[in-house]
Amino acid sequence: MSQILDGKLVSAKVLDSVAVEIASMPQPPTLAVILVGDDPASQVYVGNKKKACERVGIVSQEHFLAAGAGQAALLSLVEELNRDLNVHGILCQMPLPSGYDYDEQALCRAISPAKDVDVFHPENVGKLMLGEPELLPCTPGGVLELLDDAGIDLAGKHVVVIGRSNIVGKPMAMLALQRNATVTICHSRTKNLPEITRQADVLVAAVGRLHFVTADMVKDGAVVVDVGINRLEGRKVRGDVDFDAVAPKCSWITPVPGGVGPMTISILMKNTLQAAKLQRGEA
Ligand code: NAD
After folding, report:
1. What are the Cα distances from residue 185, in Å, to 33, 168, 181?
2. 21 HSE (CA, 13 A, CB side)
3. What is the Cα–Cα distance from 43 to 108, expressed in whole angstroms?
């Protein structure tokens, strides 16, 4: 039977260490979060970020724009926050409202790379490619933190990532490569997927399809990391991995909820602290 990679526990450890460091600073870091529109799920995410800031001692600012405020107003707010020396991290809750002509790529380029705590700016993505990231992409960074906490060394392992998004799949693959793993990225056009996933020492699923990874796709003793968030009726969420069937085959597995999810926000807090230190010349 597998052991659980417990995201709640490890995330609490990360938050505690961030809080200790912030407590010793003369001035706490500040994170500015922008929410455009009134999507209920986005409101919950923004609320969770505020709570995490409160927990670690980061000052949080929330900036609300109406759904139809428009790209120019959004960029002008970003420029103001870029100039504000008291703001160390800036993020805009995605997705931006549909039905308007928002340009998410232009937004990512507008946020100052030094304050880009989501690590979406091309300069920061480039640094990640070069193997010299200053801030960690939040979700893949959270996966690494979970693996590190369990003492799982990626060097020489075959890491198979299912999903090639800019937010999860690609940066996950880059971080695993940096840890000297042999990396395979699979996606919607990959042929013979189960043949490839069965070779994985570490399998990371980031697809967004309920129970996509079945027991026959997993090698005995593999580490399985489930990034997927699939909402069932009501408030329940489940991952991309058929947990009950897959868990007995693995050495380690993340549950959903309580696995990767809580890690993402703790890395966001760690990034905000790191961004503040870099801006103050303390890192
Ligand atoms: P996305 O939709 O941008 O990417 C999904 C990827 O899955 C694509 O690259 C696609 O090629 C691949 N895919 C689709 N069908 C496939 C198939 N049949 N075979 C192989 N690959 C296939 O999604 P994303 O933003 O990368 O997110 C993935 C999942 O992770 C979602 O459920 C999302 O909600 C979740 N997520 C969780 C966190 C967290 O904090 N835990 C953070 C971000 C995303």
Report:
1. 31, 11, 12
2. 17
3. 20
Q: Is 136 in the pocket of ligand 1 (CB under 6 A)?
A: no
4: DSSP letter: E
Mind telling me the catalytic residues? 49, 93, 118
Residue 196: per-residue pLDDT: 98
Q: The pTM is what?
A: 0.97
Is any atom of ligand 1 closer than 6 Å to the C-beta of 22?
A: no
- Element of type H or E holding 230: strand 230-231
Q: Is 228 in the pocket of ligand 1 (CB under 6 A)?
A: yes
- Bridge partner list, 60: 31
For the beta carbon of residue 132, count every other beta carbon within 10 angstroms.
9
The Cα–Cα gap between 131 and 179 comes to: 10
Question: Over the stretch 150-175, which tens digit does the pLDDT of each residue have?
Answer: 999 999 999 999 999 999 999 999 99
CB of 178 closer than 6 A to ligand 1?
no
* Pocket residue to mutate for ligand 1, from 146, 207, 227, most atoms within 8 A of Cβ: 207
Which ligand 1 atom is at minimum distance from the Cα of 263? 40
